[in-house]
Amino acid sequence: MANEIFMPKLSSTMAEGTVIEWFKEEGDTVEVGEPILEIMTDKINIEVEAYNDGTLLKKYFEADDVVPVNHVIGFIGDAGESVPDEAPGESGSGGSSATTEDATTQSDKKEDSSESTSSKSKVSGQRESMIGKVRATPAARAHARKHGINLQDITGCGRNGRIHKADVEHHLSAQSKAPVEKAESKHEPVASHPSTQAAVQTEKLKGSRKVTADRMADSSSTIPHVTLNFEVEMDQLIDLRRDLNERHNEVKVSFNDLFILIASKALSLHPDINITFQNNEISYHEERNISLAVALEKELFVPVVKNTEKMGLFGISKDTKRLIEETRNRKLSQDDMTGGTFTISNLGMYSINSFTPIINKPQAAILGIGATKEQPALKDGVLYNKKIAVLSLSFDHRVINGAPAAAFCDTIKKLTENPIELIL
């Protein structure tokens, strides 16, 4: 009997997932523990592994297709075995080929048997055998074979360095340009083709970038954004950070850590900002879970520092570093990406004076941090330089009015300019 591959339900709130890419084609042999496709939900990319040996008999969905959870997306079975021509919809009570919470439960139940031990050894051995193997999509492999390209010579832009067809095409393009560049470097004449247009590369928006784009568009079009810009003096905060890092070499505090603590303290004083708005209901949160926007190449992730109200600065710093590292390694869990009640987006490392951050739904506010710059000031008749940064609070005007938002900004300013208040 053919075994179903279905869209896994990875959390209690997950309703659908997006197919990123298949690692196998129909007719390919599949082994237990071998990744067969990649899916995404809530900006988390997950490789779905086979739970059965056999042949990939059917794929019902392709890249960028959005599929409801628990719906069948394919079948694994014996070669030639009959399966439905059309997607049968929600999974029945049959076996599964996908790693999900249900699959995890099945695995836990098998741990009591000797079969589980042998199965785990088999999967472990298969994964070890894949170490060092070039990771590439079937289309990329076929394209490389066609042009006699060694995949070892190509750097993949996909997850974990997976090579896509576009990477092979880019490698071919670079090779074709090499003789021309060499000729130009020797001042040798190169035939010109005035009628030939320059090549234009196109890229389909997909995966986490598509999810981010859809959410940005949804947020900006459905939420009445109002943004308040205000200046803060950064001198005291800069001095505090320097002193802390000089005294505690084992923990390096970042400005992100400090602003997370500042925001957490301010939210405790302004609970009407620490809210989410969904299904026409406002939820007031006791937990202050601060989301932090993290850019990774062309993608944007927003991991969450949970329960900041229970943390000191060093605890926040430790968790922030963990989340950033997990983001860079693409190992963020579903829990790391959900549950935020307020967001911080820091562009202070760039030459950006101020910007209008877009609210991270269902949250109701987001704080943007611009670059710190010196500017002259006059105090008691003496001219001196002070360090100024422009902060921007975007808020949902449906549920937060201007006066409470402005009061929150004043508290952020006070805590930034007098960081001793953070420990009082």
TrEMBL record:
Keyword Acyltransferase: yes
Biased composition (Basic and acidic residues): 179-190, 203-217
Residue ranges, compositional bias (Low complexity): 89-105, 115-124
UniProt xrefs under SUPFAM superfamilies: CoA-dependent acyltransferases, Peripheral subunit-binding domain of 2-oxo acid dehydrogenase complex, Single hybrid motif
CDD domains: lipoyl_domain
InterPro entries named in the record: 2-oxoA_DH_lipoyl-BS, 2-oxoacid_DH_actylTfrase, 2-oxoacid_DH_E2_comp, Biotin_lipoyl, CAT-like_dom_sf, E3-bd_dom_sf, PSBD, Single_hybrid_motif
Transmembrane region(s): none
Listed cofactors: (R)-lipoate
Enzyme kind, highest EC tier: transferase
Catalysed reaction equations from the record: N(6)-[(R)-dihydrolipoyl]-L-lysyl-[protein] + acetyl-CoA = N(6)-[(R)-S(8)-acetyldihydrolipoyl]-L-lysyl-[protein] + CoA
EC number from the UniProt entry: 2.3.1.-
Subunit composition and interactions: Forms a 24-polypeptide structural core with octahedral symmetry.
Family of this protein: Belongs to the 2-oxoacid dehydrogenase family.
Protein name in the entry: Dihydrolipoamide acetyltransferase component of pyruvate dehydrogenase complex
Organism of this sequence: Salinicoccus sesuvii
